[in-house]
Amino acid sequence: MVGQLKEEMNYYGKFKKYYYQIIEDFNYDYEKDCEARDYFSMLLEKKKDWNLESVLKLFKEQLQEKSNIIIFGCGPSLETTVEILLKKKRKKIFKNSVNLAADGASIFLREKKIHINSIFTDLDGITKKEFNCTNFMVIHAHGDNIDRLKHFKEEIFNFKNIIATTQVEPLKNILNPGGFTDGDRILYFLRTLLLPKHELFLIGMDFKNVIGKYSKPELIKNEEGNPIKIKKLQHAMKLIENLKDKFTNEIYFVNSEIASENFTYLSIEELMNMNVL
Questions:
Q1: What is the DSSP string of the chain?
Q2: How many separate domains does the chain show?
Q3: What is this structure's pTM?
Q4: What is the domain range of residue 18?
Q5: Which terminus of the chain faces fewer neighbouring Cβ atoms within 10 Å, N or C?
């Protein structure tokens, strides 16, 4: 059936109540979100030899080849955790996993020469270089990033495995998997793609008050988040908690300060003792 996988992954019908709460809490503009979606859709219509369903199928196939999935966020624990794991396990630990990066975390992984299977981004935390170090780009359109879509127009035209997402009603070439920030959107995106064998390990997904320096290209160090950024992270954590009951897979936060009592938090030593990565 044409578009079957896309329709399975679309979550707008159930997620829209959260979306309307978000735009109310942050005073976002629904019409601007639609404008961004429509502009992105127009760009995608000009792409040659591209079909969303085909790319989603390929993403699913590659995701299901391995049992361990590592999701990298831009939180302050990202650098320390990856550095320690590299020292203890070298790059083998990442070669044996599916590596999914939220936005600017991909810059750090590129610097460390760690392969990235997919980058999930609204384009405000990456550079054009990141298009050269991943298999897939899952690009999100919203009212505040139309200029970024224009900035990356050539990369969008030339990169083969683009997956487009929106936070309003999906179109034929754009899906809405649910989620708010790049980090929690990864988990919503995976919702229908996981196999029972999959275990998810979250690195740099801290959801506390300190913002990691890879959150934005202009940052040179970790810093205290402003009230709006902290509020976004709080929303993101709640959304992940709301998703938990829809997962039968284990979700582990690695080397992060506890931000929720609903998940298992592992020290690096505990992770090593599990001998799963």
A1: -TTHHHHHH--HHHHHHHHHHHHHHHT--HHHHHHHHHHHHHHHHT-TT--HHHHHHHHHHHHTT-SEEEEE--STTHHHHHHHHHHHHTTHHHHTEEEEEETTHHHHHHHTT--EEEEEE-SSS--GGGGGSEEEEEEEE-TT-HHHHHHTHHHHHH-SSEEEEESSS-BTTBB----SSHHHHHHHHHTTT--TT-EEEEES---SSEEPGGGSTT--S-EEPPHHHHHHHHHHHHHHHHHHTT--SEEEEES-----TTSEEE-HHHHHHHT--
A2: 1
A3: 0.96
A4: 4-274
A5: N
